[in-house]
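Q: Convert this sequence to C-alpha coordinates.
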Amino acid sequence: MPGVLEGIRVLEFTQIIAGPFGAQHLADMGAEVIKVEPPEGEPWRLFNQFMPGESKTFQSLNRGKKSLVLKLQEPEAQAIVHKLVPTMDIVICNYRPDVPAKLGIDYERLKAIKPNLIYVDNTAWGRKGPWAHRPGYDIIAQAVSGLMGAEGKLTDTGAPGVITSTAIADYTTGVAIAWGVCAALYHRERTGEGQLIETNLLQTALAVQGTSGMDLPLADQVKYQKMERVKELREERAPWSDILAAYQLGQLARVGNIYYRTYSTRDGAIAIGALSPTLWAKVRGAIPTEFLGMADPNYNPQDSAYLEMCQQAVAGVEAQLKEKDTEEWLGIFEKAGVPVGPVNFVEEAVEDPQAIENDMIVSLEHPLSGPQKQIAPMLRMSATPLAIQGPSPILGADTEGIIASAGYSADEIAALREAGVIN
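A:
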Protein backbone atom coordinates (compact mmCIF):
# COMPACT_ATOMS: atom_id res chain seq x y z
CA MET A 1 0.00 0.00 0.00
CA PRO A 2 1.27 3.54 -0.73
CA GLY A 3 2.50 5.77 2.07
CA VAL A 4 0.22 8.51 3.28
CA LEU A 5 2.48 11.18 1.73
CA GLU A 6 2.94 9.49 -1.64
CA GLY A 7 3.16 12.19 -4.33
CA ILE A 8 4.36 14.86 -1.89
CA ARG A 9 7.71 16.40 -2.83
CA VAL A 10 10.11 17.89 -0.28
CA LEU A 11 13.15 20.08 -0.90
CA GLU A 12 15.41 19.85 2.14
CA PHE A 13 18.08 22.43 3.00
CA THR A 14 19.17 21.00 6.35
CA GLN A 15 22.19 19.63 8.16
CA ILE A 16 23.17 17.70 11.29
CA ILE A 17 20.13 16.22 13.15
CA ALA A 18 16.88 18.19 13.62
CA GLY A 19 16.09 18.99 9.98
CA PRO A 20 17.33 15.69 8.54
CA PHE A 21 15.41 13.68 11.18
CA GLY A 22 12.21 15.60 10.47
CA ALA A 23 12.56 15.12 6.71
CA GLN A 24 13.35 11.44 7.21
CA HIS A 25 9.98 10.98 8.91
CA LEU A 26 8.33 12.40 5.79
CA ALA A 27 10.32 10.04 3.58
CA ASP A 28 9.21 7.10 5.72
CA MET A 29 5.63 8.25 5.09
CA GLY A 30 6.16 8.04 1.34
CA ALA A 31 7.22 11.60 0.42
CA GLU A 32 9.94 12.18 -2.15
CA VAL A 33 12.64 14.03 -0.24
CA ILE A 34 15.42 15.78 -2.16
CA LYS A 35 18.28 16.73 0.13
CA VAL A 36 20.34 19.67 -1.12
CA GLU A 37 24.00 19.38 -0.13
CA PRO A 38 27.13 21.46 -0.73
CA PRO A 39 29.81 19.97 -3.00
CA GLU A 40 31.71 18.53 -0.03
CA GLY A 41 28.55 17.04 1.43
CA GLU A 42 26.71 18.09 4.57
CA PRO A 43 28.89 18.07 7.74
CA TRP A 44 27.34 14.92 9.18
CA ARG A 45 28.72 12.91 6.24
CA LEU A 46 32.18 13.88 7.46
CA PHE A 47 31.64 13.17 11.16
CA ASN A 48 33.43 9.94 12.13
CA GLN A 49 33.63 8.70 8.55
CA PHE A 50 34.12 4.97 8.17
CA MET A 51 34.69 5.47 4.44
CA PRO A 52 35.00 8.65 2.35
CA GLY A 53 31.81 10.69 2.52
CA GLU A 54 29.91 8.18 4.63
CA SER A 55 29.24 8.02 8.38
CA LYS A 56 26.76 6.15 10.54
CA THR A 57 25.32 9.42 11.81
CA PHE A 58 24.54 10.59 8.29
CA GLN A 59 23.16 7.25 7.14
CA SER A 60 20.88 6.94 10.18
CA LEU A 61 19.30 10.36 9.56
CA ASN A 62 18.94 10.48 5.78
CA ARG A 63 17.50 7.18 4.59
CA GLY A 64 15.06 7.17 1.73
CA LYS A 65 16.20 10.54 0.35
CA LYS A 66 17.76 11.75 -2.89
CA SER A 67 20.95 13.84 -2.96
CA LEU A 68 21.18 17.02 -5.01
CA VAL A 69 24.53 18.81 -4.86
CA LEU A 70 24.37 22.58 -5.36
CA LYS A 71 26.80 25.34 -4.49
CA LEU A 72 24.07 27.63 -3.23
CA GLN A 73 26.31 30.69 -3.06
CA GLU A 74 26.27 30.75 -6.87
CA PRO A 75 23.38 32.52 -8.66
CA GLU A 76 23.13 29.61 -11.11
CA ALA A 77 22.47 27.22 -8.22
CA GLN A 78 19.78 29.50 -6.83
CA ALA A 79 18.18 29.59 -10.28
CA ILE A 80 18.00 25.79 -10.24
CA VAL A 81 16.21 25.90 -6.89
CA HIS A 82 13.73 28.45 -8.23
CA LYS A 83 12.95 26.19 -11.19
CA LEU A 84 12.40 23.23 -8.90
CA VAL A 85 10.17 24.98 -6.35
CA PRO A 86 6.99 24.98 -8.49
CA THR A 87 7.04 21.18 -8.39
CA MET A 88 7.60 21.05 -4.63
CA ASP A 89 5.07 20.90 -1.81
CA ILE A 90 7.41 21.46 1.11
CA VAL A 91 10.70 23.21 1.76
CA ILE A 92 12.60 22.56 5.00
CA CYS A 93 15.41 24.90 5.99
CA ASN A 94 17.52 25.03 9.17
CA TYR A 95 19.94 27.89 8.67
CA ARG A 96 20.29 30.96 10.89
CA PRO A 97 17.49 33.49 10.16
CA ASP A 98 19.76 35.72 8.07
CA VAL A 99 21.17 32.98 5.81
CA PRO A 100 18.23 31.82 3.64
CA ALA A 101 17.72 35.26 2.10
CA LYS A 102 21.41 35.42 1.18
CA LEU A 103 21.05 32.08 -0.61
CA GLY A 104 17.79 32.99 -2.32
CA ILE A 105 15.81 30.29 -0.49
CA ASP A 106 13.90 32.33 2.11
CA TYR A 107 10.16 31.90 2.54
CA GLU A 108 9.14 35.19 0.91
CA ARG A 109 11.23 34.47 -2.19
CA LEU A 110 9.98 30.93 -2.62
CA LYS A 111 6.38 31.78 -1.72
CA ALA A 112 6.37 34.27 -4.58
CA ILE A 113 7.23 31.39 -6.91
CA LYS A 114 4.73 28.95 -5.37
CA PRO A 115 2.05 30.67 -3.25
CA ASN A 116 0.74 27.47 -1.58
CA LEU A 117 4.19 26.28 -0.55
CA ILE A 118 4.63 24.85 2.95
CA TYR A 119 7.93 26.13 4.31
CA VAL A 120 9.58 24.96 7.54
CA ASP A 121 12.02 27.45 9.06
CA ASN A 122 13.97 25.73 11.82
CA THR A 123 16.42 27.79 13.87
CA ALA A 124 18.25 27.38 17.15
CA TRP A 125 16.60 30.19 19.11
CA GLY A 126 13.66 31.55 17.11
CA ARG A 127 13.57 34.48 14.69
CA LYS A 128 13.30 37.25 17.30
CA GLY A 129 15.25 38.35 20.35
CA PRO A 130 18.93 38.98 21.08
CA TRP A 131 19.95 35.43 20.22
CA ALA A 132 18.05 35.17 16.93
CA HIS A 133 21.11 35.27 14.70
CA ARG A 134 23.36 33.17 16.88
CA PRO A 135 24.28 29.68 15.71
CA GLY A 136 23.27 26.92 18.09
CA TYR A 137 23.54 23.19 18.56
CA ASP A 138 21.94 20.65 20.85
CA ILE A 139 24.51 20.99 23.63
CA ILE A 140 23.85 24.74 23.86
CA ALA A 141 20.07 24.24 23.77
CA GLN A 142 20.47 21.72 26.62
CA ALA A 143 22.36 24.32 28.61
CA VAL A 144 20.17 27.35 27.92
CA SER A 145 16.84 25.57 28.33
CA GLY A 146 17.56 24.05 31.74
CA LEU A 147 17.72 20.45 30.54
CA MET A 148 21.39 20.12 31.40
CA GLY A 149 21.18 21.76 34.79
CA ALA A 150 18.14 19.77 35.85
CA GLU A 151 19.97 16.55 35.00
CA GLY A 152 22.11 17.25 38.06
CA LYS A 153 25.35 15.74 36.79
CA LEU A 154 28.79 17.09 37.57
CA THR A 155 32.06 16.34 35.79
CA ASP A 156 35.30 15.76 37.68
CA THR A 157 36.07 19.45 37.23
CA GLY A 158 32.76 20.57 38.71
CA ALA A 159 31.22 21.55 35.38
CA PRO A 160 27.67 20.50 34.42
CA GLY A 161 27.46 17.07 32.84
CA VAL A 162 26.06 16.89 29.31
CA ILE A 163 23.13 14.63 28.40
CA THR A 164 25.07 12.28 26.16
CA SER A 165 22.61 9.46 25.49
CA THR A 166 20.90 11.44 22.72
CA ALA A 167 20.67 14.92 21.24
CA ILE A 168 17.31 15.49 22.91
CA ALA A 169 16.62 19.02 21.62
CA ASP A 170 17.58 18.07 18.07
CA TYR A 171 15.55 14.89 17.87
CA THR A 172 12.42 16.33 19.48
CA THR A 173 12.62 19.25 17.05
CA GLY A 174 12.76 16.76 14.17
CA VAL A 175 9.50 15.23 15.39
CA ALA A 176 7.99 18.73 15.65
CA ILE A 177 9.00 19.44 12.05
CA ALA A 178 7.25 16.33 10.73
CA TRP A 179 4.20 16.98 12.90
CA GLY A 180 3.93 20.57 11.67
CA VAL A 181 4.28 19.56 8.03
CA CYS A 182 1.51 16.98 8.28
CA ALA A 183 -0.82 19.49 9.93
CA ALA A 184 0.00 22.09 7.28
CA LEU A 185 -0.68 19.60 4.49
CA TYR A 186 -4.09 18.90 6.03
CA HIS A 187 -4.79 22.64 6.22
CA ARG A 188 -3.75 23.09 2.58
CA GLU A 189 -5.96 20.19 1.53
CA ARG A 190 -8.95 21.97 3.09
CA THR A 191 -8.18 25.56 2.12
CA GLY A 192 -5.56 25.55 -0.64
CA GLU A 193 -3.28 27.70 1.53
CA GLY A 194 0.37 27.09 2.21
CA GLN A 195 2.09 28.56 5.24
CA LEU A 196 5.29 29.17 7.17
CA ILE A 197 6.08 26.75 10.00
CA GLU A 198 8.63 27.89 12.58
CA THR A 199 10.43 25.47 14.89
CA ASN A 200 13.50 25.94 17.03
CA LEU A 201 15.67 23.94 19.41
CA LEU A 202 14.96 26.13 22.44
CA GLN A 203 11.19 25.80 22.10
CA THR A 204 11.22 22.01 21.94
CA ALA A 205 13.78 21.75 24.76
CA LEU A 206 11.43 23.83 26.90
CA ALA A 207 8.36 21.90 25.77
CA VAL A 208 9.68 18.56 27.03
CA GLN A 209 10.07 20.18 30.46
CA GLY A 210 6.47 21.29 30.63
CA THR A 211 5.82 20.56 34.30
CA SER A 212 9.10 22.04 35.54
CA GLY A 213 8.66 25.11 33.35
CA MET A 214 5.08 25.71 34.46
CA ASP A 215 4.51 28.41 37.06
CA LEU A 216 1.75 27.77 39.60
CA PRO A 217 1.93 30.05 42.66
CA LEU A 218 -0.32 27.86 44.80
CA ALA A 219 2.02 24.89 44.36
CA ASP A 220 5.41 26.50 43.82
CA GLN A 221 6.51 27.98 47.16
CA VAL A 222 9.44 25.58 47.47
CA LYS A 223 10.45 26.38 43.90
CA TYR A 224 10.40 30.11 44.62
CA GLN A 225 12.58 29.64 47.70
CA LYS A 226 15.20 27.56 45.95
CA MET A 227 15.32 29.88 42.91
CA GLU A 228 15.80 32.88 45.19
CA ARG A 229 18.83 31.12 46.63
CA VAL A 230 20.06 30.24 43.14
CA LYS A 231 19.75 33.91 42.18
CA GLU A 232 21.75 34.97 45.24
CA LEU A 233 24.52 32.49 44.45
CA ARG A 234 24.70 33.64 40.83
CA GLU A 235 25.06 37.24 42.01
CA GLU A 236 27.83 36.08 44.35
CA ARG A 237 29.55 34.41 41.39
CA ALA A 238 29.48 31.09 43.20
CA PRO A 239 30.82 27.95 41.49
CA TRP A 240 28.37 25.78 39.59
CA SER A 241 28.55 22.97 42.16
CA ASP A 242 27.16 25.31 44.85
CA ILE A 243 24.45 26.60 42.54
CA LEU A 244 23.44 23.05 41.64
CA ALA A 245 23.30 22.03 45.31
CA ALA A 246 20.95 24.92 46.04
CA TYR A 247 18.77 23.99 43.09
CA GLN A 248 18.57 20.38 44.25
CA LEU A 249 17.33 21.38 47.70
CA GLY A 250 13.93 21.60 46.08
CA GLN A 251 14.16 17.91 45.25
CA LEU A 252 14.12 16.68 48.85
CA ALA A 253 10.72 15.15 48.17
CA ARG A 254 12.57 12.44 46.29
CA VAL A 255 14.02 11.19 49.56
CA GLY A 256 12.17 8.05 50.53
CA ASN A 257 11.51 7.07 46.93
CA ILE A 258 11.57 3.29 46.65
CA TYR A 259 8.84 3.14 44.02
CA TYR A 260 9.93 4.92 40.83
CA ARG A 261 13.65 4.46 40.37
CA THR A 262 16.52 2.19 39.41
CA TYR A 263 18.22 -0.41 41.59
CA SER A 264 21.50 -2.25 41.38
CA THR A 265 21.13 -6.02 41.47
CA ARG A 266 23.76 -8.67 42.08
CA ASP A 267 24.60 -8.79 38.36
CA GLY A 268 23.22 -5.63 36.78
CA ALA A 269 20.41 -3.15 37.28
CA ILE A 270 16.64 -2.83 36.94
CA ALA A 271 14.10 -0.02 36.81
CA ILE A 272 10.70 -0.11 38.47
CA GLY A 273 7.86 2.30 37.86
CA ALA A 274 5.06 2.46 40.44
CA LEU A 275 2.91 5.59 40.30
CA SER A 276 -0.22 4.71 42.25
CA PRO A 277 -1.02 3.61 45.83
CA THR A 278 -2.00 0.17 44.51
CA LEU A 279 1.35 -0.28 42.81
CA TRP A 280 3.22 1.11 45.84
CA ALA A 281 1.71 -1.67 47.96
CA LYS A 282 2.76 -4.24 45.38
CA VAL A 283 6.35 -2.95 45.49
CA ARG A 284 6.47 -3.27 49.27
CA GLY A 285 5.09 -6.78 49.05
CA ALA A 286 7.59 -7.83 46.42
CA ILE A 287 10.75 -6.56 48.14
CA PRO A 288 9.44 -7.01 50.99
CA THR A 289 9.56 -3.98 53.30
CA GLU A 290 7.31 -2.16 55.75
CA PHE A 291 8.87 1.18 54.83
CA LEU A 292 6.23 3.45 53.28
CA GLY A 293 8.45 6.26 52.10
CA MET A 294 6.56 8.68 49.93
CA ALA A 295 3.38 6.66 50.52
CA ASP A 296 3.45 7.58 54.22
CA PRO A 297 0.62 10.06 55.00
CA ASN A 298 2.99 11.66 57.56
CA TYR A 299 5.82 11.99 55.04
CA ASN A 300 7.88 15.02 55.98
CA PRO A 301 11.37 15.28 54.46
CA GLN A 302 11.79 18.70 56.11
CA ASP A 303 12.05 16.92 59.50
CA SER A 304 15.73 16.02 59.95
CA ALA A 305 15.00 12.97 62.12
CA TYR A 306 12.43 11.70 59.65
CA LEU A 307 14.84 12.41 56.82
CA GLU A 308 17.56 10.34 58.48
CA MET A 309 15.11 7.47 59.02
CA CYS A 310 14.15 7.58 55.33
CA GLN A 311 17.74 7.48 54.21
CA GLN A 312 18.52 4.47 56.35
CA ALA A 313 15.38 2.63 55.24
CA VAL A 314 16.08 3.28 51.56
CA ALA A 315 19.64 2.04 52.00
CA GLY A 316 18.22 -1.15 53.51
CA VAL A 317 15.93 -1.67 50.52
CA GLU A 318 18.82 -1.07 48.14
CA ALA A 319 20.86 -3.67 50.00
CA GLN A 320 18.05 -6.20 49.58
CA LEU A 321 17.97 -5.65 45.84
CA LYS A 322 21.69 -6.41 45.59
CA GLU A 323 21.15 -9.85 47.08
CA LYS A 324 19.46 -11.31 43.98
CA ASP A 325 20.20 -11.47 40.25
CA THR A 326 18.44 -9.27 37.72
CA GLU A 327 16.39 -12.12 36.24
CA GLU A 328 15.22 -13.19 39.68
CA TRP A 329 14.04 -9.69 40.53
CA LEU A 330 12.35 -9.30 37.16
CA GLY A 331 10.36 -12.43 37.88
CA ILE A 332 9.46 -11.32 41.41
CA PHE A 333 8.24 -7.89 40.35
CA GLU A 334 6.39 -9.20 37.30
CA LYS A 335 4.59 -11.78 39.44
CA ALA A 336 3.62 -9.01 41.86
CA GLY A 337 2.28 -6.85 39.02
CA VAL A 338 4.93 -4.13 39.32
CA PRO A 339 6.09 -2.49 36.06
CA VAL A 340 9.74 -3.47 35.72
CA GLY A 341 12.52 -3.82 33.17
CA PRO A 342 16.26 -4.43 32.95
CA VAL A 343 18.66 -1.55 32.35
CA ASN A 344 20.03 -2.17 28.86
CA PHE A 345 22.29 -0.48 26.40
CA VAL A 346 20.71 0.33 23.04
CA GLU A 347 22.88 -2.32 21.38
CA GLU A 348 21.16 -4.86 23.63
CA ALA A 349 17.69 -3.37 23.24
CA VAL A 350 17.69 -3.70 19.44
CA GLU A 351 18.42 -7.42 19.78
CA ASP A 352 15.68 -8.01 22.34
CA PRO A 353 12.78 -10.23 21.19
CA GLN A 354 10.34 -7.47 22.16
CA ALA A 355 11.88 -5.10 19.62
CA ILE A 356 12.38 -7.76 16.96
CA GLU A 357 8.90 -9.29 17.15
CA ASN A 358 7.30 -5.84 16.87
CA ASP A 359 9.36 -4.99 13.75
CA MET A 360 11.13 -2.13 15.47
CA ILE A 361 14.31 -2.89 13.51
CA VAL A 362 14.63 -2.91 9.72
CA SER A 363 17.33 -4.19 7.37
CA LEU A 364 18.73 -2.11 4.50
CA GLU A 365 21.37 -2.49 1.80
CA HIS A 366 23.52 0.56 1.13
CA PRO A 367 25.16 0.69 -2.32
CA LEU A 368 28.56 1.59 -0.82
CA SER A 369 28.62 0.21 2.70
CA GLY A 370 26.49 -2.89 2.27
CA PRO A 371 24.01 -4.41 4.75
CA GLN A 372 22.85 -2.48 7.80
CA LYS A 373 20.05 -2.40 10.35
CA GLN A 374 18.25 0.73 11.47
CA ILE A 375 15.50 1.69 13.88
CA ALA A 376 12.13 1.47 12.14
CA PRO A 377 9.69 4.42 11.91
CA MET A 378 8.27 5.33 15.31
CA LEU A 379 4.61 4.87 14.42
CA ARG A 380 2.39 2.51 12.44
CA MET A 381 -0.60 3.22 10.24
CA SER A 382 -2.90 0.43 9.15
CA ALA A 383 -4.29 1.93 5.92
CA THR A 384 -1.16 3.81 4.84
CA PRO A 385 1.78 2.00 6.43
CA LEU A 386 5.14 3.67 6.72
CA ALA A 387 7.97 2.05 4.80
CA ILE A 388 11.62 2.92 4.47
CA GLN A 389 12.19 3.88 0.85
CA GLY A 390 15.86 2.97 0.81
CA PRO A 391 19.21 3.78 2.41
CA SER A 392 20.78 7.20 2.62
CA PRO A 393 21.90 8.60 -0.75
CA ILE A 394 25.41 8.71 -2.11
CA LEU A 395 26.55 12.32 -2.35
CA GLY A 396 25.15 13.87 -5.52
CA ALA A 397 23.81 10.57 -6.85
CA ASP A 398 20.58 12.17 -8.07
CA THR A 399 21.85 15.60 -9.10
CA GLU A 400 21.74 15.14 -12.86
CA GLY A 401 18.30 13.55 -12.97
CA ILE A 402 16.76 16.18 -10.70
CA ILE A 403 18.21 19.07 -12.66
CA ALA A 404 17.17 17.51 -15.96
CA SER A 405 13.61 17.28 -14.59
CA ALA A 406 13.72 21.07 -14.14
CA GLY A 407 14.30 21.51 -17.87
CA TYR A 408 18.09 21.70 -18.13
CA SER A 409 19.71 20.14 -21.19
CA ALA A 410 22.69 17.81 -21.13
CA ASP A 411 24.96 20.61 -22.35
CA GLU A 412 23.68 22.99 -19.67
CA ILE A 413 24.21 20.37 -16.99
CA ALA A 414 27.77 19.76 -18.22
CA ALA A 415 28.46 23.51 -18.09
CA LEU A 416 27.11 23.74 -14.54
CA ARG A 417 29.33 20.88 -13.50
CA GLU A 418 32.36 22.45 -15.16
CA ALA A 419 31.68 25.69 -13.28
CA GLY A 420 31.45 23.85 -9.93
CA VAL A 421 27.80 24.80 -9.40
CA ILE A 422 26.84 21.12 -9.20
CA ASN A 423 28.91 18.01 -8.53
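The two ends are 35 Å apart (CA to CA).
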